[in-house]
Amino acid sequence: MTAPHTAITPELVREHGLNEAEYARIQELLGRDPNIVELGIFSVMWSEHCSYKSTRFHLKKLPTSAPWVIQGPGENAGIIDVGDGDVCVFKMESHNHPSFIAPFQGAATGVGGIMRDVFTMGARPVASLNALRFGEPSHPKTKHLVSGVVEGIGSYGNCMGVPTVGGEVNFHSTYNGNNLVNAMCVGMAKADKIFYSAARGSGNPVVYVGSKTGRDGIHGATMASAEFNEDSEEKRPTVQVGDPFTEKLLLEACLELMATDAIIAIQDMGAAGLTSSSAEMADKGDSGIEIDLDKVPQRETNLTAYEMMLSESQERMLAVLKPGREAEAERIFKKWELDFSVIGFTTDTHRLVVKHKGEIVADMPVTALSDAAPLYERPYITRAPASGTPEFDATRPVMTSLLKLLGTPDLCSKRWVWEQYDYTVMGDSVQQPGGDAAVVRIHGTQKGLAMSTDVTPRYCKADPREGAKQAVAESYRNITAVGATPLALTDCLNFSNPEKPEAMGEIVNGIEGMGEACRALDYPIVSGNCSLYNETQGEGILPTPTVGGVGLLKNIARMATIAFKRDNDAILVIGETKGHLGQSVYLREIEGKEEGACPPVDLKLEKKHGKFVRGLIEAGKLDTVHDVSDGGLLVAVAEMALASGIGAVLRTNYDPADFIPTMFGEDQGRYLVALPEKKADAVITAAAKAGIYVRHLGFTGAVSEMGEPVLQGVGLPAVGLETLRSAHENWLPSYMNN
Amino acid sequence: MKARVFVTLKNGVLDPQGKAIGHALNNLGFGSVGEVRQGKLIELALTGSDEAKARADLKEMCEKLLANTVIEKYEIEITA
Amino acid sequence: MKARVFVTLKNGVLDPQGKAIGHALNNLGFGSVGEVRQGKLIELALTGSDEAKARADLKEMCEKLLANTVIEKYEIEITA
Amino acid sequence: MKAAVVVFPASNCDRDAAVALEQITGHKPQMVWHADSEVPEVDLIVLPGGFSYGDYLRCGAMAGQSHVMRAVKEKAEQGVRVLGICNGFQVLTETHMLPGVLMRNAALKFVCKPVGLTVTETQSVFTRHYKAGQRVEFPVAHGEGNYVADTETLDRLEGEGRVVFKYAPGENPNGSERDIAGILNDKRNVLGLMPHPERVCDPLLGGTDGKAMFESLLEALS
Ligand SMILES: Nc1ncnc2c1ncn2[C@@H]1O[C@H](COP(=O)(O)OP(=O)(O)O)[C@@H](O)[C@H]1O
Ligand SMILES: [Mg+2]
Predict the structure, then answer these.
(1) Chain B residues with CB inside 8 Å of C29's CB?
(2) DSSP helix/strand/coil, A619
(3) Which residue has its alpha carbon closest to ligand 1 atom 2?
(4) I want to staple D60 with a disulfide (CB 3.0 to 4.6 A). Which of A532, A597, D94, D135 is the partner?
């Protein structure tokens, strides 16, 4: 046994990402020097990824509770009550770095990891979403990354038989060296069949199930570990390969075991594998755990204790069973042809003890890994938000700009992406990709879950606080637009280097802004994840605090969609259009400027407008709704027309000075709705009564002399929908295929 | 000239396909089968007759496109 | 014993994947690349030392599972 | 009509198939595990979509070698109806219960979308409730649905009225020869098709064009 006797040098400590003060603290906590296995364990448990040392302090500012929240952050996933004994379990996680190095496998294992987080709580995954950011299309790596990431997400989700129903894809040069892959999974469980990770009690068997352990993804200490293992590089892949087939078996086996009452606690092995799962389970259970590595199913020969504790092999779980139930559990896992092994037991020592080949190779207090982990209130600077109202050329023809916008990388149709995902499997996808939120029917009921992932990074760059508020507000709007009540959020906070005060300022302001919006909208955060250090050669990504929202649709028969339904419907805009062009897509794509203040978010109005629109949908008075976001009013109208094949004529008051801002400004809090003209008056009256700004923008059903559906208006020469459609649909496939 | 390129997963990298194939062969009664690994075989026709140049080119093709060297290794064979 | 099995598409069967690889290599500037075909390489560890028996077994494995002989052909190589 | 749905490890449309069958026949089908060597006495066996055995090596190859498929083959020889959807179709070609092979989609990508189909044969227990030449829309969701067979086989299939569904002109999602989407065996009791009729039996899910297939079976087998 060589590993535990490797001398701990200052270099080794550094290579494990620990600074001097942190190392001194480890020595103090242990009352001695750690051995190499213990150093490895501290290194991963105290990493930013596991300990949230830069963000923990600020994350406390997020609201995490509501009467319908059953489990907030701190477990594998958040849980909300959706009524009738059903709960919804969901979380989002990043797999940014692996997806940059190996796009297919990195993205695939990202999906696999987040699914385990959800089914470990007893839920069957029912939907997947994702939020993707890539570098500029012209960057030589971008196409390859898009292709691999999308294929990876599809291959894993499709094989699992979980529909991938929504997401977003954007491009920006700051992601050239740091693409973002945020994957969200939503599952359903019964309220009386939820499983947690607290390993309570002493003397209970700890079992390992799933795939065997190999040398996958042992991070950080490549050079250091080379010192105690000759065949270093080739044996030490930093990226894991996903095995969705095994995961599907693991899902079914876990759900089968969960139907019994044999489980005390269960947790997936994610980042830092065996180490974090055992330490966290003991910590939450206020117990200790002793494990014997000789009992761990191994894929390779001569795995060291260090390697086994740090391996990130996929498709594995750790569970604590009630004593005497091992055989029953083993039968289930054998049926599904999975590994099963009792590798240890819980103790009352509050220590994590690891044995290997008859020796104790690690022995430390559990709290040293959790509560005692470093916590930093890093210095930060709040940059003055970008301000001002940018200049623009008021003479540009609006329809030409619309055509151009619809064919830009950010606004074009993402059909090429979602058609690679099986979004119809499981037979409950009642609203498929292409709308404001995806809706999945709660199996066997008339209720639906509405889901959406959102953030507008350019706003967050201009003003981290307002931008983060906007992300939450847009999520609220997307969920509302289908008729659902927004219930809770998961998040994925992608930022750059927290050790730089400016970047830390983006983090702090982002979290605070997000918290403010969540509070105002009764839309708490129940789970999430932080991904920091997203920078290359000193340049950070745009701050990208992605949120994944879930809402409840009481009656799927009264769901709204973005497609126009009939000719001669009145098109109304709820919410005032002031013409805010700062940080708009129009400004960037047409004027070539990324400047000005981002649109302010009025949370009171968001809530008021949302309630108004939702009320109309729920009352069966409205079936056609689209929120107004990127690209502004005219882009939103075009999207509604394209989704239906029905044209529109707009009653535009053509005043050159504010025509462009009116058509393309990105003022917040707005919805476009369409309904039969004779019902429109009542809505206008009701809005006026509620003090809500509403404007009658036009009518559906315009056709050219040839009978082709068109979009037109005063100052808007008629353009055929097919012309708009080809601009909208062609960019992505032609980019990817050339 | 004709060349064959073999792209396989590095040792230690999980090979789910190979694992499943091995399992299936055992189930079919081929008890002698131990570990199975699956890789790619790429056959290329090349113009030119300079073998050294072809090898250098193929190496570059592997590094750039045919293999993801984070998890895969490759082998080049000139066959004719 | 170790064996390698090469499974490739029969001549005349269209190989869009190979074609796509060829195309991508040409685009990367490898003008010397002509036709490309992609197949599978399956490496197996076998117990026993009777090479003839191993070959016979491998042939059966190919016929039964490793190749779909409607469109694929196979080649067996005992390497060690 | 009594029906069974075979479940392979990583089948994932087994529930979808069961839901559609129950909705139309009023009875829950029996679920049969891949390791079982017997199939119960039923009128219809469904091989569902999914990724049996991960679809590693080739789609449907390992499922084709499973215990249960030996039993399914026997039943089919006795005349029991077998419906293979998507992965089920791939299993049927791998076991040579249907001719030809399903290769990787011509565009090399997985494709999920609703596709227009023409019902080209209504003289079958699977399709008698459709009208000849009728256009229907079923979703597809597959990476390997590109049907390939030699000319002789293709001619025979067409000549004998065994091509049941074709992709509508211009809508072939995978490059299959002669736009073939679904075929019958020579005894006409085994149907394999790539599109998913079971996913279009509910208006909320984008249509009800798939219902007629299950209604045809129900009428023929009750
Ligand atoms: N990566 C993706 N996966 C699945 N669906 C996607 C993806 N990217 C975009 N979509 C879908 O495309 C539609 C438009 O996306 P987006 O413009 O981001 O919507 P919104 O502005 O309403 O948030 C949505 O239905 C979304 O779910
Ligand atoms: Mg929207």
Answers:
(1) none
(2) coil
(3) A167
(4) D94
Q: In this predicted model, what pLDDT tens digit does every residue of A603-616 receive, in sequence order?
A: 999 999 999 999 99
Helix axes A721-737, A398-406, angle to 10 degrees: 40
Q: Domain A560-738: what homologous superfamily?
A: PurM-like C-terminal domain (3.90.650.10)
For A441-461, what is the HEC assignment?
Answer: ECCCCCCEEEEEEECCHHHHH
Tell whether D49 lies on the interface with A, counting CB pairs under 8 A.
yes
pLDDT digits over A622-656, tens only?
999 999 999 999 999 999 999 999 999 998 877 87
Query: Residue A224 pLDDT > 90, yes or no?
Result: no
Do D110 and A556 lie within an 8 Å CB cutoff?
A: no
- Give the whole-angstrom CA distance, residue A428 versus residue D202: 10
- Angle subtended by helix axes A603-618 and A677-690, to nearest 10: 140
Closest ligand to residue A129's CA? 1
* Run of H or E residues at A49: helix A48-51
DSSP for chain D reads --EEEEE-TTB-SHHHHHHHHHHHHSSPPEEEETT-S---S-SEEEE--B-GGGG-SSTTHHHHTSHHHHHHHHHHHTT-EEEEETHHHHHHHHTTSSSSEEEPPTTSS-EEEEEEEEE---SSTTTTTSPTT-EEEEEEEES--EEE--HHHHHHHHHTT-EEEEEPTT--SS--GGGEEEEE-TTS-EEEESS-GGGSSBGGGTB-TTHHHHHHHHHHH-
Q: Give the pLDDT confidence of A399-436 residue by residue, as tens digits.
A: 999 999 999 999 999 999 999 999 999 999 999 999 99
Residue D189 near residue D82, CB atoms below 8 Å: yes
State the best of D5, D7, D11, D12 to mutate against chain A, taking most chain A CBs within 10 Å.
Answer: D12
Distance CA A167, CA A185 (A): 11
Contact A480/A451 with Cβ under 8 angstroms? no
In tens, the pLDDT along A143-187 reads 999 999 999 999 999 999 999 999 999 999 999 999 999 999 999
Instruction: Report whether CATH 3.30.70.141 matches the domain D3-221.
Output: no
Within 10 angstroms of residue A65's Cβ, the number of other Cβ atoms is: 12
Domains detected in chain C: 2-78 (3.30.1280.10)
ipTM: 0.93
> Mind listing the pLDDT tens digit for each residue in A58-103?
999 999 999 999 999 999 999 999 999 999 999 999 999 989 989 9
Distances (CA, A) of A586 to A631, A727, D202: 6, 16, 41
Q: Evaluate: CB of A135 within 6 angstroms of ligand 1.
A: no
Helix (H) or strand (E) holding A634: helix A632-644
Please write down the HEC assignment for all residues of A327-378: HHHHHHHHHCCCEEEEEEEEECCCEEEEEECCEEEEEEEHHHHCCCCCCCCC
| Burial of B37: CB neighbours in 10 Å, binned 0-12, 13-18, 19+ | buried
3-state SS class at A217:
coil
Query: pLDDT at residue B31 above 80?
Result: yes
pTM: 0.94
Whole-number Cα distances in Å, B11 to A8, A152, A233, B35, B71: 29, 22, 10, 12, 9
Q: Is A93 in the pocket of ligand 1 (CB under 6 A)?
A: no
Torsion angle of C-alpha atoms A605, A607, A611, A612, degrees rounded to 10: 10
- The sheet that has A86-94: what strands, in order across it? A69-71, A78-83, A86-94, A180-190, A124-134, A164-171
A349 phi and psi, to 5 degrees? Answer: -90, -10
Out of C38, C46, C65, the one facing B32 most closely (by C-beta) is: C46
Chain mean pLDDT for chain A:
94
